[in-house]
Specification:
The chain is an alpha+beta fold.
Length: about 400
């Protein structure tokens, strides 16, 4: 009864193994910096410094079995079947510098690469040999002649790494640092602006290794009210989670280093600040604020004041200068008053006089003498008498005229 069950499990396991893909399809597409298809570019798939596969990119605008175009595609492409893993991809083309990239295959993948006809820097790709498992996950640094880190990169499984932007004709060396030992490569120069391979021996002789002891150092200045900090490192690697005792003027603090290997204390007052880790001690002195000293009492007797009986001749000009200043001030005030009077009184009067219209000259009228007043009663009597005399005269003339007839 158990044998058929075991056989069934075995068959199912074999079926699962057969169903798992043993290779993935990788398509590399190549263009230049303006997007033009770069047909017939050589694409190399490398493990370390060994070329596993090499194909040229093709362009298949239509299906043509004779030319190897089983599928139509409108790009310059090269296809590979690759097992899961990490590879280097190197591109080579006439008239172009070499280009190198890292490729991690975990599924079917298509990547477009750009080639520059004018490339100003060198690409360094390589592998840490000897003990790559030990260095996997750490960083490899490219140092200049002043021992300054210029570039750095992660070390991948199998010890692979890639550092871009390496300037030609410049001295560099590679450095491995795991916190306890340091390995330096020989000094090298980039030969051109292409790409090249380099190996670093991870198991060099002890004479080439440097034992790196942890070191506690101050990483900030000591100023009042500033934040003081110290850092604990082993080589270039910060030591995280280490206990550091910080003694301040107000008491002692137990601090733990952060991811950068640092602890911090606020310098709230002046005095000595002491940081201790195991046997290492770092002291920082914060200056205290300066306080103005009180004025000192003059205990020596004051010299007697001598009053001169006569004013020295040299002091005479001082009085003259005082009166001269007062006269100048008075003259200035008078000028202001005159200017105000002139502006607010003289000028308006003058403008009014100028704008007044000219009147015409009239001839004097002849004098009118008053008529003598006559009494009203007399005037009426005379007029009545005159009327009566005139009527009497007419009556007499009429009578005389009748007699003649």
């Amino acid at each position: 009864m158990q044998t058929p069950c075991r056989m069934l499990v075995l068959v199912l396991g074999l079926a699962l193994l057969v169903g798992l893909p043993s290779a993935y399809q990788f398509n590399a597409t190549v263009v230049n910096e303006i997007g033009t298809r770069l047909v017939n570019t050589h694409v190399q798939i490398m493990v370390g410094n060994t070329v596993l596969y090499e194909n040229a990119t093709t362009w298949c605008p239509e299906i043509d079995v004779a030319k190897g175009c089983y599928v139509a595609y409108d790009r310059a492409m090269s296809s590979f079947d690759l097992a899961p893993g990490i590879y280097f991809v190197r591109l080579q083309r006439g008239g172009y510098p070499d280009h190198a990239y890292i490729l991690n295959i975990t599924r079917d993948l298509e990547v477009q690469y750009v080639m520059f006809i004018k490339k100003s820097t060198y690409t360094l790709f390589g592998r840490v040999t000897g003990n790559p498992e030990h260095w996997t996950g750490t960083r490899i640094s490219m140092m200049d002649a002043q021992d300054t880190v210029v570039r750095s990169a992660n070390i991948l499984p199998a010890g692979d790494f890639l550092i871009d932007t390496v300037w030609p004709d410049t001295n560099y060396y590679l450095r491995l640092d795991d916190g306890t030992q340091r390995i330096n490569s020989p000094v090298f120069q980039a030969p051109d602006t292409g790409a090249g391979y380099m190996e670093v021996n991870g198991t060099l002789a002890l004479s080439n290794n440097t034992i790196l002891a942890p070191k506690l150092a101050a990483s900030s200045g000591a100023a009042l009210y500033s934040v003081l900090s110290v850092q604990l490192k082993s080589g270039d690697r910060p030591m995280t989670g280490q206990q550091i005792a910080a003694k301040t003027p107000r008491g002692t603090l137990n601090l733990s280093t952060d991811e950068n290997g640092k602890v911090y204390v606020q310098a709230a007052e002046g005095g000595e600040y002491t940081f201790t880790w195991e046997t290492q001690v770092v002291k920082m002195s914060v200056p205290k604020p300066t306080v103005a000293a009180p004025p000192q009492k003059n205990e020596t007797p004051a010299a007697p004041v001598v009053i001169p009986t006569e004013q020295p001749a040299e002091t005479a000009p001082q009085g003259g200068m005082t009166w001269l200043g007062m006269a100048s001030l008075l003259l200035f005030v008078m000028m202001i008053v005159i200017a105000v009077v002139f502006i607010f009184f003289v000028v308006p009067w003058f403008m009014k006089a100028v704008n007044k219209p000219v009147q015409k000259k009239e001839e004097p009228a002849a004098p009118m003498w008053p008529m003598p007043a006559e009494p009203q009663a007399e005037t009426g009597a005379k007029e009545h008498g005159h009327k009566e005399a005139h009527a009497h005269h007419k009556h007499k003339a009429a009578k005389h005229h009748k007699k003649k007839r």
